[in-house]
Amino acid sequence: MLSHRANVTASALLAVMACAAARVLFEVPFTTPLAIHFDAAGNPNGWAPAWIALALIPLIALGLLGLAALLPKIGPRSANLFRSQSAVQTIFLAVLGLLTAVQLVIVAQALHVVMIVARIIPCAVGLLLVFTGNVLGKMRWNYTIGIRTPWTLANERVWDHTHRFAGRLFVAIGALVAIGVWWKPVQGHEAALMMTGAVAIVVLPVLRSYQLWKAHQA
Fold this sequence. Notes:
The chain crosses the membrane at residues 50-71, 91-110, 116-136, 165-183, 189-207. It comes from Massilia eburnea. This is DUF1648 domain-containing protein. By secondary structure, the chain is mostly helical. It has one domain (4-217). Helix content is 72%, strand content 6%. The chain is built from eight helices and two strands; from the N terminus they run αββααααααα. Strand 1 (33-38) and strand 2 (44-49) form a beta hairpin.
Protein backbone atom coordinates (compact mmCIF):
# COMPACT_ATOMS: atom_id res chain seq x y z
CA MET A 1 0.00 0.00 0.00
CA LEU A 2 2.89 2.36 0.75
CA SER A 3 5.12 3.54 -2.08
CA HIS A 4 8.88 3.00 -2.03
CA ARG A 5 9.46 6.59 -0.93
CA ALA A 6 6.87 6.27 1.86
CA ASN A 7 8.47 3.02 3.04
CA VAL A 8 11.87 4.72 3.16
CA THR A 9 10.40 7.57 5.23
CA ALA A 10 8.67 5.10 7.56
CA SER A 11 11.90 3.13 7.96
CA ALA A 12 13.77 6.34 8.81
CA LEU A 13 11.22 7.19 11.52
CA LEU A 14 11.51 3.67 12.95
CA ALA A 15 15.30 4.03 12.93
CA VAL A 16 15.00 7.29 14.89
CA MET A 17 12.82 5.54 17.48
CA ALA A 18 15.23 2.60 17.74
CA CYS A 19 18.33 4.79 18.03
CA ALA A 20 16.68 6.94 20.69
CA ALA A 21 15.73 3.82 22.66
CA ALA A 22 19.26 2.42 22.36
CA ARG A 23 20.67 5.72 23.62
CA VAL A 24 18.67 5.36 26.84
CA LEU A 25 19.40 1.66 27.32
CA PHE A 26 23.13 2.39 27.23
CA GLU A 27 22.66 4.38 30.44
CA VAL A 28 19.56 2.97 32.14
CA PRO A 29 19.01 -0.60 33.41
CA PHE A 30 16.27 -2.50 31.59
CA THR A 31 14.03 -2.61 34.67
CA THR A 32 14.26 1.08 35.60
CA PRO A 33 10.75 2.65 35.59
CA LEU A 34 10.30 5.23 32.83
CA ALA A 35 7.39 7.63 32.42
CA ILE A 36 5.00 6.59 29.63
CA HIS A 37 1.88 8.56 30.60
CA PHE A 38 1.40 12.20 31.55
CA ASP A 39 -1.41 14.22 33.10
CA ALA A 40 -2.96 17.34 31.58
CA ALA A 41 -0.16 19.47 33.02
CA GLY A 42 2.51 17.26 31.46
CA ASN A 43 3.54 15.62 34.74
CA PRO A 44 4.33 11.87 34.62
CA ASN A 45 1.61 9.71 36.17
CA GLY A 46 2.28 6.32 34.62
CA TRP A 47 5.47 4.26 34.40
CA ALA A 48 6.76 1.01 32.89
CA PRO A 49 10.09 -0.85 32.96
CA ALA A 50 12.57 0.72 30.54
CA TRP A 51 12.54 -2.18 28.07
CA ILE A 52 8.74 -2.01 27.79
CA ALA A 53 8.56 1.79 27.75
CA LEU A 54 11.11 2.02 24.93
CA ALA A 55 9.80 -0.91 22.87
CA LEU A 56 6.08 -0.09 23.06
CA ILE A 57 5.90 2.79 20.56
CA PRO A 58 8.16 1.15 17.91
CA LEU A 59 6.07 -2.03 18.14
CA ILE A 60 2.88 -0.03 17.62
CA ALA A 61 4.54 1.63 14.61
CA LEU A 62 5.49 -1.76 13.15
CA GLY A 63 1.93 -2.93 13.67
CA LEU A 64 0.63 0.08 11.74
CA LEU A 65 2.98 -0.65 8.85
CA GLY A 66 1.78 -4.25 8.80
CA LEU A 67 -1.80 -2.99 8.79
CA ALA A 68 -1.04 -0.67 5.87
CA ALA A 69 0.19 -3.65 3.87
CA LEU A 70 -2.75 -5.87 4.86
CA LEU A 71 -5.76 -3.55 4.48
CA PRO A 72 -5.94 -3.50 0.66
CA LYS A 73 -5.99 -7.31 0.64
CA ILE A 74 -8.84 -7.79 3.11
CA GLY A 75 -11.02 -4.68 2.89
CA PRO A 76 -14.13 -4.27 0.73
CA ARG A 77 -13.74 -1.77 -2.13
CA SER A 78 -9.98 -2.31 -1.99
CA ALA A 79 -9.64 -0.83 -5.48
CA ASN A 80 -10.73 2.50 -4.05
CA LEU A 81 -8.05 2.20 -1.37
CA PHE A 82 -5.43 1.91 -4.10
CA ARG A 83 -6.95 4.99 -5.75
CA SER A 84 -6.48 6.72 -2.37
CA GLN A 85 -2.87 5.57 -1.97
CA SER A 86 -1.38 9.06 -1.75
CA ALA A 87 -3.85 10.10 0.95
CA VAL A 88 -3.55 6.85 2.89
CA GLN A 89 0.22 6.91 3.02
CA THR A 90 0.22 10.57 4.08
CA ILE A 91 -2.08 9.69 6.99
CA PHE A 92 0.02 6.67 7.99
CA LEU A 93 3.24 8.69 7.87
CA ALA A 94 1.65 11.48 9.90
CA VAL A 95 0.65 8.95 12.56
CA LEU A 96 4.20 7.55 12.54
CA GLY A 97 5.48 11.09 12.98
CA LEU A 98 3.28 11.52 16.05
CA LEU A 99 4.51 8.20 17.45
CA THR A 100 8.10 9.32 16.88
CA ALA A 101 7.39 12.51 18.83
CA VAL A 102 5.93 10.46 21.71
CA GLN A 103 8.97 8.16 21.67
CA LEU A 104 11.32 11.15 21.84
CA VAL A 105 9.35 12.59 24.77
CA ILE A 106 9.73 9.28 26.65
CA VAL A 107 13.45 9.26 25.86
CA ALA A 108 13.88 12.90 26.91
CA GLN A 109 12.16 12.21 30.23
CA ALA A 110 14.43 9.20 30.79
CA LEU A 111 17.52 11.34 30.14
CA HIS A 112 16.17 14.18 32.33
CA VAL A 113 15.97 16.59 29.41
CA VAL A 114 13.66 19.47 30.31
CA MET A 115 10.72 19.85 27.91
CA ILE A 116 7.15 21.10 28.11
CA VAL A 117 5.24 17.87 27.49
CA ALA A 118 1.86 19.59 27.89
CA ARG A 119 2.62 21.63 24.76
CA ILE A 120 4.79 19.32 22.67
CA ILE A 121 2.34 16.40 22.46
CA PRO A 122 -0.74 18.57 21.68
CA CYS A 123 1.32 20.41 19.07
CA ALA A 124 2.27 17.09 17.46
CA VAL A 125 -1.39 15.99 17.51
CA GLY A 126 -2.38 19.28 15.89
CA LEU A 127 0.15 18.76 13.10
CA LEU A 128 -1.20 15.24 12.60
CA LEU A 129 -4.67 16.72 12.10
CA VAL A 130 -3.33 19.29 9.62
CA PHE A 131 -1.58 16.65 7.51
CA THR A 132 -4.60 14.35 7.68
CA GLY A 133 -7.03 17.12 6.82
CA ASN A 134 -5.00 18.11 3.77
CA VAL A 135 -5.63 14.71 2.17
CA LEU A 136 -9.03 13.67 3.56
CA GLY A 137 -10.81 15.07 0.52
CA LYS A 138 -8.80 12.66 -1.66
CA MET A 139 -10.03 9.56 0.17
CA ARG A 140 -12.18 7.49 -2.15
CA TRP A 141 -15.31 5.65 -1.03
CA ASN A 142 -14.32 2.59 1.06
CA TYR A 143 -15.23 0.67 4.19
CA THR A 144 -11.78 0.80 5.82
CA ILE A 145 -10.32 4.29 6.22
CA GLY A 146 -12.19 7.57 6.49
CA ILE A 147 -15.33 9.12 7.98
CA ARG A 148 -17.43 5.95 8.09
CA THR A 149 -21.00 6.77 9.05
CA PRO A 150 -24.14 4.97 7.82
CA TRP A 151 -24.73 7.90 5.46
CA THR A 152 -21.25 8.16 3.93
CA LEU A 153 -21.14 4.40 3.37
CA ALA A 154 -24.58 4.47 1.75
CA ASN A 155 -23.81 7.16 -0.82
CA GLU A 156 -20.55 8.00 -2.58
CA ARG A 157 -21.48 11.63 -3.13
CA VAL A 158 -22.22 12.06 0.59
CA TRP A 159 -18.83 10.44 1.29
CA ASP A 160 -17.00 12.87 -0.99
CA HIS A 161 -18.68 16.02 0.35
CA THR A 162 -18.33 14.89 3.97
CA HIS A 163 -14.60 14.25 3.53
CA ARG A 164 -14.03 17.63 1.93
CA PHE A 165 -15.84 19.26 4.85
CA ALA A 166 -13.95 17.14 7.40
CA GLY A 167 -10.64 17.92 5.70
CA ARG A 168 -11.12 21.66 6.12
CA LEU A 169 -12.27 21.12 9.71
CA PHE A 170 -9.25 18.95 10.56
CA VAL A 171 -6.85 21.55 9.15
CA ALA A 172 -8.52 24.39 11.06
CA ILE A 173 -8.70 22.52 14.38
CA GLY A 174 -5.20 21.10 13.95
CA ALA A 175 -3.67 24.51 13.25
CA LEU A 176 -5.57 26.02 16.18
CA VAL A 177 -4.25 23.34 18.55
CA ALA A 178 -0.68 23.29 17.20
CA ILE A 179 -0.34 27.07 17.46
CA GLY A 180 -2.70 27.70 20.36
CA VAL A 181 -0.78 25.60 22.89
CA TRP A 182 2.10 28.08 22.61
CA TRP A 183 -0.15 31.09 23.17
CA LYS A 184 0.21 32.43 26.70
CA PRO A 185 -3.55 32.74 27.53
CA VAL A 186 -3.99 29.03 26.66
CA GLN A 187 -1.14 27.82 28.86
CA GLY A 188 -2.53 25.64 31.61
CA HIS A 189 -5.62 24.89 29.51
CA GLU A 190 -4.00 22.74 26.82
CA ALA A 191 -6.09 19.69 27.74
CA ALA A 192 -9.34 21.66 27.43
CA LEU A 193 -8.26 22.91 24.00
CA MET A 194 -7.48 19.34 22.94
CA MET A 195 -10.80 17.98 24.21
CA THR A 196 -12.80 20.74 22.52
CA GLY A 197 -11.03 20.06 19.25
CA ALA A 198 -11.55 16.30 19.60
CA VAL A 199 -15.29 16.72 20.13
CA ALA A 200 -15.52 19.01 17.10
CA ILE A 201 -13.71 16.68 14.69
CA VAL A 202 -15.75 13.67 15.86
CA VAL A 203 -19.23 15.18 16.05
CA LEU A 204 -19.36 17.76 13.25
CA PRO A 205 -18.49 15.40 10.34
CA VAL A 206 -21.14 12.94 11.55
CA LEU A 207 -23.78 15.66 11.66
CA ARG A 208 -22.66 16.98 8.27
CA SER A 209 -22.87 13.52 6.69
CA TYR A 210 -26.44 13.10 7.93
CA GLN A 211 -27.38 16.56 6.68
CA LEU A 212 -25.92 15.80 3.24
CA TRP A 213 -27.68 12.43 3.08
CA LYS A 214 -31.04 14.01 3.97
CA ALA A 215 -30.51 16.65 1.28
CA HIS A 216 -29.65 13.94 -1.25
CA GLN A 217 -32.79 11.96 -0.33
CA ALA A 218 -34.92 15.04 -0.88
